[in-house]
Amino acid sequence: MGICATKNYYRIVLLGNVGSGKTTFCKQIVDAYLGGFSKSMKLEFRKHIQANILHRMVAMVGFEEMEDTLISDAEFEKNFRILQEATVADFEYTDEENFTYVQEVLDAAIFVGQHDTVQNICNALFLSAPWDFTYFRDIRRIFQKHYEPSREDIFTCRKPTTGSCEYIIRHLHVSRQGGKMIRKEVIIEVIDVGGQKSERKSWEKQIELADAILYLVSMTDYAGKEGGVQDYYSYLSDNNKCNLKYTQELFKENFLVPKTRYVPIILLETKVDLFKKMIEENSPAMRDCFPEYKGPEGDFESASAFLSAQIKKKIMDQVKRKRQHILATKLDRMPILRQNLTSMGNFVMTFNQIWDKVIYALNDVKQIELIGERGQNSKSSVHEHLMLKKKALRNHRASVSDPTVGPGTPKRKMNFRRSITILTGATFRGSGTASVEELISGNNSLSIPMAKRNSVQGIVRSRSYHWN
Ligand SMILES: Nc1nc2c(ncn2[C@@H]2O[C@H](COP(=O)(O)OP(=O)(O)OP(=O)(O)O)[C@@H](O)[C@H]2O)c(=O)[nH]1
Ligand SMILES: [Mg+2]
User: Fold this and answer.
1) Cβ < 6 A, ligand 1 pocket
2) Residue 15: in which H helix or E strand, if any?
3) Which structural domain range is residue 75 located in?
4) At how many degrees (to 10) do helices 244-256 and 300-321 cross?
5) 171 lies in some domain
6) Where does the pLDDT of residue 238 fall: very low under 50, low under 70, confident under 90, or very high at 90 and above?
7) Binding-site residues for Mg(2+), please?
């Protein structure tokens, strides 16, 4: 019998390179399981979206066309300076009451954003970082006085994660066993962490506490080449590396750390929508990035199969060389899923499919290890490992206190609402708490009534919550 048969509480950690879609995955969770985005969250997103656009516009100053226009067009130059000042002053330029930029900045943003020079730069860079440039196609709507972000805007909004963030959901898992429909309620704690180098220090600790890892890889990373458009994007996003070589290395590093050994990994390839478009338009062509690619150009299926193999290749080469058969089998049987995380489809169904794979991988990793151990005639280190993990998780839960409420928070209580609001960079005071036991026993509702959420008072800026 698998370890999943008796357990109904799981902790899943999302790992992956910067920009691979971890937070976007969590937004889908908020949307599908936690009552959607409240008015206050939308206001936070509005700030980020508008600030993102202003920063992107100002960063374009390095382009030759931009410099030329600034010299030749006095009206453009005047408006551009207003934006430069606004980005430096940041929130001083916002009108607290209406929570938006002052009229002068709004007008300047529309003027500059709709100018041909800016639009041309955006079009040229669009596929390299669509999340940054989509908004430029809609600049008038976004900079109107009472703009409220749509669901699509929220899913496109990019804000690198700092610290970690937990989302606790109740999922009714529906599966088929021997022609029978099985329903099982599970409580799942999904952990979002940052992918930037400075944030990755917490990963090992997260792996230690995780039942499974959902490892995200952006399929568009295939296009990352030195000197290409990706370099411009890297420049915009704190010099973070987004190319496939780097993604492969990072995955290898995490797959091979001893703490990952007994933890099942599910590979989630994201941005499949963009990848499909890039492949079909040969922008760039697969062979330009991988001379060894033998498949037909413009063919999505063979390009994605090749890419999945590439992601695993480095690790496979190493574990085979070192004759680490158990790891090789684990890698070989690792479930792979592809997803467009910005899709507005039914995420509960998508999550159900992901959960199928998690359950499969949980059982499979244990089987692989047991078979390996039998071969080596050793004691059950799998059992030992599971006991250690249980203990680590118990200690962790006992030590978690809630930073939004301050010292004296009752131990073993988890603040699930905090997790939702941190998504926007803000935290609400006075949100409710529930112990894991309460959640499991169903004594506490996970969905937060809309009226209650909107009435929460006071917003605290927070860099979210860190490990001690
Ligand atoms: N088109 C498309 N865009 C996506 C997809 N997944 C993520 N994105 C976009 O990619 C950008 C980065 O996604 P995030 O979810 O912030 O990435 P992250 O992994 O949380 O990044 P860090 O917090 O910096 O580690 C966002 O603007 C998303 O809109 C996808 O499947 N399709
Ligand atoms: Mg993130």
Assistant:
1) 16, 18-24, 130-131, 155-156, 158, 160-161, 194-196, 270-271, 273-274, 340-342
2) strand 9-16
3) 39-156
4) 40
5) yes
6) very low
7) 23, 161
